[in-house]
Amino acid sequence: MDHLLSCEATWHKGHSLAQTIFSCIYLLRLDRTLAHPLLHSYCRIIRSTCNAVISVVSDARTHEEEDLFTMAYGLTLTGDGDDKCLSLLNAIEETLSRQLRACKAPSSKRRVLEDIEPLQNNLALEEGLCKALLCRLRFRKHFYHVLISMRRPQGRGLELARKHISSCLLELERIRKSWEFLRDKVFGDNIEDRTTASGRQPIGFDPNLNLRLSAPTPPRSIKTLSWIKAIEYFEKLLNDLDIICSFSMDPLVENILWFVVQFQKSQPDLVARSHLQLLLIQDAKLYGRDSIFAVICRAAALPEVTKDHDIQKDEVVMQLGGLLINLLKIVCTNIAWQRRKLGKILHDWRVIHMQLEFTFKKVLAEMSSFPSEENVCMRLAKHILIWVEEQTYWIASRFLILGFELELYSPSEYCMVYWYLYVILIKLAEKIHLKVVAANDISKRKGKKKRDSSMELRQKDYQIPPTDSLLQCHICLAEGLTMMLASLRNERKVFQCLGPFNTEDERFSQHFELLQKAWLPEYTTYFTFREYTSRASFSTLIMYNRFKDAQRIAKELKDSFENDPEKMDELKRIEQVAEHNSIALNLICRVGVIDPSLKVSFEFSHHPYFAVAVVKRS
Questions:
Q1: Local structure of residue 599 (DSSP, 8 states)
Q2: Among 72, 156, 459, 538, which residue's beta carbon has the most beta carbons within 10 A?
Q3: What value, to the nearest 5°, has the Cα angle with vertex 321 and ends 316 and 325?
Q4: 159: number of Cβ within 10 Å
Q5: DSSP state of 223
Q6: For residue 228, how many C-alpha atoms fall within 13 Å in the half-sphere facing its CB?
Q7: According to the 3-state scheme, what is the secondary structure of 436-480?
């Protein structure tokens, strides 16, 4: 049982099914285990679980990144009676529970031995063995329920899945504690690299069993995860699934993307990410219930009535819906695969914007004789075009940010990357502002009907949403880091792109080639970057300290996000980066820029993509 758990975790980590779980001879010939009900029921639930996991990953189509995961190599994953695997397991669980209750009643031990066949000969060990087996069986039962419940359409099984996740975590803790009973005195406490709680080698496994089923290439070397590591893996997997189940299924694209980005920070594995993707997109609808055009209208701040407009049947608008579905699927993949895909779809979003402009002009020309319809279509076109540009710049910013998480940039390239990120975030803020203004225009019209006062309307116009202010914090940090690095390059001649291979211009082209091809933003070149940073100096930087601006805005936003722990954590990280960089900036200016003993380096100790300057004397 323990070795199978280790094999299952190893399979989830990307190794082949044939060389991990199906290295167990009992799973290959399940009919031969019928004489042993406990072993038979356990093997059957393992096989059903494997089938459920493969089904999830295959349907989500995230297995391209771990292509060995869904390959079954012709192994039998389904069979007659698999639908009864839970009833078989429940029957065995009930038998073991009766044995355990009998073991706890000393007066009836002798009578129980006559009625129920004990698991082994030593009666003193019967209770501990029953507990160890029960927690393992119950974990398998609840884990299978989690997988089935999360597949229910429109998220209807998420609450039930959370209950089973809690039970799984409880049983895993009991499995961990059973080590004290099962451990072998020969191995003692040294089981860190063992695949069983006792530390003994498992029986019924042969790693060379399915060599003929493997692809005609040299076999990949496999190191099966230890029993402790397997338990830790399943605990993390269940916690990730619990986060997915606790998601409020927010209908706003902006909030969905924020949730997924935060979820990805914990580096969830393939199974958890597949479940998240299937929750978001079901039958080409958001959560299996909201049409993609309705989702776009809501994201573009359009009135609810526009979601039924006939323009949704237009081919280009349907293509836009396909791009949004594709984006939601991409952000659920691992970050390396995600970055590659985001870079490729940037051009598609840019092209769809031009196609939409042409389509809307054509439709408006056809509706010129119907003024009321023309006004509705014009408003719809304006909102959707702004939203498409906003989404395009969000993708570009995500593309750049993931480069930090993947460590694709060297310190000498930080200046150009932060500058490009600053430019992209400025454009993103502009598009968000245009969307807010367009939404306010609609509310103004309603306000006029209700005879709202002009003073109230003015207050509405100048009220900045908290999410926009949070973006402004990021803009301040990106600009501050750009100017600090540029000043160090100009005055101390450090963090410069010097080397025998690629020039700075070539590195700029390599990092931002996909953005440049998509004209994001327009007329942004290496020479624009050089012109912007060539005159940066510490004397100017200390006067216009953008880090202090970020710190001030972050403090003001705390009241707005007091009920959102994730955004509060982000504000805390922003404050720490801004404070440390402000101190470093003042220190450099006070000691002297040209002091040769002063050493400046950058590290990501407080934020995943905004660096902190570390100043030391050599």
A1: E
A2: 538
A3: 145
A4: 11
A5: -
A6: 10
A7: HHHHHHHHHHHHHHCCCCHHHHHHHHCCCCHHHHHHHHHHHHHHH
CA–CA distance, 594 with 141 (Å, rounded to integer) = 67
* Three-state secondary-structure class, residue 600: strand
What phi and psi values does residue 270 have, to the nearest 5 degrees? -55, -45
- In one letter, which amino acid is 423? V
Retrieve residue 407's tokens.
């460590």
Kindly report the backbone phi and psi dihedral angles of residue 24, in degrees, each rounded to the nearest multiple of 5, phi listed first.
-90, 120
For the CA atoms of the chain, what is the radius of gyration?
30
Given the structure tokens 């093997």, which residue do they identify?
43
Residue type, 429: A
Residue 415 class from Cβ within 10 Å (0-12 exposed, 13-18 middle, 19+ buried)?
Answer: buried
How many C-beta atoms lie closer than 10 Å to residue 103's C-beta? 21
Measuring CA to CA, how many Å separate 611 from each of 404, 451, 511, 568, 578? Answer: 10, 50, 19, 19, 10
Res. 186: pLDDT tops 80: no
| Tokens read off for 344 | 């490729």
CB 156 within 8 A of CB 188: no
How many residues can be counted in the chain? 618
Note every long-range contact of 75-80, with CB atoms under 8 Å and residues 24 or more positions apart, other chains counting: 75/17, 75/18, 75/22, 75/28, 75/210, 75/213, 76/28, 76/30, 76/47, 77/47, 77/50, 77/51, 78/47, 78/51, 79/30, 79/47
User: 376 or 217, which is more confident?
Assistant: 376
Contact 184, 198 (CB under 8 A): yes
pLDDT tens-digit series, residues 522-571: 889 999 999 999 999 988 888 889 999 999 999 999 999 999 999 999 99
Listed in sequence order, the DSSP H helices in 265-304 are 270-280, 292-299
Q: How many CA atoms lie within 13 A of 519 on its CB side?
A: 9
The type of residue at 113 is L
Q: Are strands 598-603 and 612-617 parallel, antiparallel or unpaired?
A: antiparallel
- Whether 62 contacts 158, CB under 8 Å: no
Structural tokens at position 517: 């091809």
Distance between CA atoms of residues 455 and 567, nearest Å: 32
Cα 394 from Cα 337, distance rounded (Å): 17
- Summarised one tens digit per residue, pLDDT across range 567-577 is 999 999 999 99
The secondary structure of 98-113 as a DSSP string is HHHHHHT-GGGHHHHH
- Give me the helix-helix angle, 335-366 and 371-405, nearest 10°: 170
pLDDT (tens digit, 9 = 90+) per residue, 139-176?
999 999 999 999 999 999 999 999 999 999 999 999 99
At residue 521, what are phi and psi to the nearest 5 degrees? -75, 175
In this prediction, what percent of the chain has a pLDDT beyond 70?
A: 90
Helix (H, G, I), strand (E, B) or coil at 63: coil
